[in-house]
Amino acid sequence: MATMVVLGSGIMATALSFPVTENGHEVRLVGTHLDREIIDSIQKTGVHPNLGLKVNENIKAYQLEDVAEAFEGADVVMCGVNSFGIEWIAEQFKTLLKPGQKLLCVTKGMRADEDGTLHLLPTIIQNALPKELVDQVSWNAIVGPSIAGEVAVHHDTCVVFCGHDQDDLDYLADMFRTDYYHVWTSLDFVGHETGAATKNIYAFAAGFAKGMLEAAGKENDKYVMYNYSSAVFAQGAKELIHFIKLMGGDPNTGIGLGGVGDMFVTSMGGRNVKAGTFVGQGVPFSEVRSVHMKGVTLEGVAAISVVGKALRALTKRGVIKEEDFPLCRFLYSVVEEDHPLEMPWDKFFANLK
Amino acid sequence: MATMVVLGSGIMATALSFPVTENGHEVRLVGTHLDREIIDSIQKTGVHPNLGLKVNENIKAYQLEDVAEAFEGADVVMCGVNSFGIEWIAEQFKTLLKPGQKLLCVTKGMRADEDGTLHLLPTIIQNALPKELVDQVSWNAIVGPSIAGEVAVHHDTCVVFCGHDQDDLDYLADMFRTDYYHVWTSLDFVGHETGAATKNIYAFAAGFAKGMLEAAGKENDKYVMYNYSSAVFAQGAKELIHFIKLMGGDPNTGIGLGGVGDMFVTSMGGRNVKAGTFVGQGVPFSEVRSVHMKGVTLEGVAAISVVGKALRALTKRGVIKEEDFPLCRFLYSVVEEDHPLEMPWDKFFANLK
């Protein structure tokens, strides 16, 4: 039996502890400084307050001050913070990560240099660590359509564990596989991580139609706006696959769990979709951010800000063309420049054969 | 101004008459023998009863006995029946279609020979006509995520007009384009028609999760089954693109309006999804067909029957492999052999890199 330590006790990291513990492994769940109440609750009642569920008995919860103890002898380390915490966790890993450990990243997002060069989040962690340590740790990630709570209540979920070493992937997949948690493995780490990071961009746009209908008083009409959302989904799928190519991944990865599958689940709801709904209602995004969803973590919007800005720099450098990624560019103008919701349909679906 | 005659007055064909007439063109809507009441209603009140809307004033409705008059001098002929009517309409076209007319097909589906060779529906029409006439008619089709009623009430809709001649496509696109009906054109006729035909197969599976939740009394739980439906969607996307390749189309067509976009809208609801919901509840499909949805047109289920059977013949001939199209094969066993809903997850997502 193996031991997994999880740093970050949000709903996704916690939910993923269910299949692992059900397979008889030990999970040590460590809260960040922001997770104090979550860990308190689990320690006292066993209940994760945001997930709304009691965790399994062999999940042991630790406050951050006990993190060193929790990492002691762990075989697997899960990076379980959200994308805003990636620089913080990289700092922690400097002293916590040990040679031979297998890292499993569930955090999704991107960072960009001033010249537009995009980086996946595991790269951000690696860049903060001594090169020797980086080479002695196994780097892996979980990708695919997973609403955390659905995993926790044992609903069928299909995911891809991606990494660089097939043996490590098999080891990790074995730890997690149950009759409801179905795991595939892939060596296309870059393609899968890129799909996972960019799908969040398009989830924001999945909320527009609902908001537009609400603003027009038509949300209960016989005919809603699935045509609109489907067209946005289709353009999103094209751009997601273009991002995979741009980052050097396998475009086929976009057609599957790590691309359109993940984008589908993300479009079904959540905070980014809700933020998009406000924009659909006609609220300028600056007001959504400062009033209606003040303080709410919006990873999709953050991805739009990072990637959208990078696209402008990449265009200037001639790495991509002006007409590439029209939907992502438009979403950037919505979230950063309060652009109204006039979808630039005529820029979509270029290069149809 | 051009004249379009539409044979078949179902909701899709009728809805598509809206943008055309709003552009000042004349539309002659001819009912089949099954559409008598629809045409009666439009002639008397202007209302299409199934669409639940009043049609535009320059849509003129004809009963089938006046079809020859309606075809007189028409520039464009729309094939507006559903897939069950394709052999019937081919018979009609023998005497009605005239050289120089542009055909625009909205009917989606497939037929198969005993040896598994698959045919798109326009091919079925062509095979029934004299070769000389086939060569003198322009063959085109409309593909993309379109719920009929949403077009009729002017919600943004993005579609692809596909065919073999760019000038004809431009002519047709010009007839239809409005500020809410956005038209692209493509010469990948086979790819687009294949995507449109096969997406219906997977819509049936989009209903399973809801039915399973209902059977378990969990449909109002905090956590539903989007992970399940997203995995099915992802495998469906892979198979849809595989079908496009098998038929000789451009696989890129699957990533866009004519593939995942169309599959997305079809998964949002409709009769095939409803039929799948019954199966999710545990009802054998033979009972769904004979009791719960008796007499209801199920084009997706029909596509599963035709294509699923063909896959077995194609496998025997070595055209495809045993492990190809596992979801479509499973759906075939559900609708033709009352197979229970045990999703063969382990057969999905093969060849991940």
Automatic annotation (TrEMBL), chains A, B:
Residue intervals of the Glycerol-3-phosphate dehydrogenase NAD-dependent C-terminal domain: 188-342
Catalysed reactions, as listed in the record: sn-glycerol 3-phosphate + NADP(+) = dihydroxyacetone phosphate + NADPH + H(+)
Alphabetized Pfam families for the sequence? NAD_Gly3P_dh_C, NAD_Gly3P_dh_N
UniProt-listed Enzyme Commission number(s):
1.1.1.94
Q: Which positions does UniProt annotate for substrate binding?
A: K108, R271, N272
In this chain the Glycerol-3-phosphate dehydrogenase NAD-dependent N-terminal domain maps to: 4-166
By sequence similarity, the record places it as follows: Belongs to the NAD-dependent glycerol-3-phosphate dehydrogenase family.
Write down what this protein is called: Glycerol-3-phosphate dehydrogenase
Task: Please tell me the species this chain comes from.
Answer: Schaalia turicensis ACS-279-V-Col4
